[in-house]
Design brief:
single chain; Transposase Inhibitor Protein From Tn5, Chain A, domain 1; about 400 residues; 15 helices; 9 strands
Length: about 400
């Protein structure tokens, strides 16, 4: 990274220009485009997420006041019209595939991330979804209820690496179970999800892929106890080997494990269900507790990235804004890794946001500067010299 480049350009340098150009050509992103290219659109959208701009006019006025930086950003022209048309017409698949290519590169370079919460090496991944409300009169394609529109983000989050691995955007009325089939299942992984994803066929799919799941039982989940295992800790109230006995049990005929756990904080007993018989009962409870990571991620992106309000009203514009938000999150995490900083992702994001158009080296910005030490003896000697 060079000092002569803005922070925004240094962030974008982590995205392969060659691969991005291939995607633009594949989807005819720059067909008949003379001034405002798809690469320009990516730059502007990253700027929007990093600076929380509110509208098209806000974006254009802000960047117009920094016209002296346009050459370095590759911008030739910018107006509300060409920005809105770009959001409407450029394929959102360009940014979706860019997200997955950046994810692949980040994971390849980091290789393995240690999670101090667990001793085992299997990756823990969480399924969940979040709904983003939209105004039905403006976003007439996003039907949800009679007077309310919305979309839903179905996501698979890697708890160990703290990054999203899979994102699916659907209508808000779609049930979580119906979106579960699109999640990629890999062997030797642990998948965590809440009751909304419980479906015997989906559980069977995870088992057939030689993977594990941890979830909570529903109140109407019927099973018969095959074996009662020894309770190893006081917080474990039961550790059973069971089999489903409902009319749909043919969809999942294998044995399962049910763990009843007493939580000291809430003073409640929780019942977990898993197909993993090797880990301790307490570890199963801790794995499910780590599901909270994805809830914190949803809260983080809604508070810091522009995914609650949109600068375009078309379906394509909304998807571009969501995918570029995911790219901005990955770039921030990538920079944290590259710079070897001890800062949290929130602090890193704030520093990058404050200096987004400054000619500053990212490594220097993220260096932890220690305050000058105060030597008491040296100060006393100084006072004697100064006669006070």
């Amino acid at each position: 990274m060079f000092k002569s480049k803005t922070v925004l350009l240094q962030m974008q340098s982590l995205i392969s220009g060659y691969d991005f150009k291939k995607l633009v050509i594949e989807h005819n992103g720059d067909k008949s485009v003379k001034t405002f290219t798809t690469r320009n659109l990516l730059s502007v959208m990253l700027y929007v997420h990093m600076t929380s701009k509110q509208s098209l006019r806000d974006i254009v006025d802000s960047l117009t006041s920094k016209r002296n930086l346009w050459y370095h950003l590759g911008l030739k022209s910018l107006s509300r019209n060409n920005l809105s048309q770009a959001l409407k017409n450029r394929s959102s698949e360009i940014f979706e595939k860019t997200f997955y290519e950046l994810l692949y590169r980040l994971r390849n370079e980091r290789v393995f991330v240690k999670d101090i919460r667990f001793k085992f090496k299997l990756p823990v991944k969480t399924f969940d979804s979040t709904t983003i409300s939209l105004c039905l009169s403006l976003f007439d394609w996003a039907t949800f209820r009679k007077k309310k529109g919305g979309i839903k983000l179905h996501m698979m989050f890697n708890n160990r690496e703290q990054i999203p691995e899979f994102v699916n955007i659907s209508e808000a009325g779609r049930h979580d179970v119906s979106a579960a089939d699109k999640f990629p299942i890999k062997s030797n992984s642990i998948y965590v999800f809440d009751k909304g994803y419980i479906c015997f066929k989906f559980l069977e799919k995870i088992s057939k892929n030689k993977a594990f799941f941890v979830t909570r039982t529903k109140t109407n989940t019927r099973y018969r106890i095959v074996k009662r295992q020894q309770k190893t800790q006081s917080c474990i109230k039961a550790d059973w080997v069971v089999k489903f006995c409902s009319y749909k049990s043919k969809d999942y005929p294998e044995k399962l494990r049910v763990v009843r756990y007493y939580d000291q904080e809430t003073k409640k007993i929780y019942e977990f269900m898993t197909n993993n018989f090797a880990l301790s009962a307490k570890t199963i409870a801790d794995i499910y507790k780590s599901r909270w990571d994805i809830e914190l991620f949803f809260k983080w992106i809604k508070q810091n990235l522009k995914v609650k309000t949109f600068i375009g009203t078309s379906e394509n514009a909304v998807k571009i804004q969501i995918w570029t938000a995911m790219i901005a999150y990955l770039l921030t995490e990538f920079i944290r890794f590259k710079s070897r900083t001890s800062f949290t992702i929130l602090k890193t994001f704030r520093i990058l946001s404050e200096n987004i158009l400054c000619n500053a080296d990212i490594h220097e910005l993220l260096m932890e500067i220690k305050p000058p030490s105060f030597d008491k003896k040296e100060n006393c000697n100084l006072q004697l010299v100064m006669n006070f």
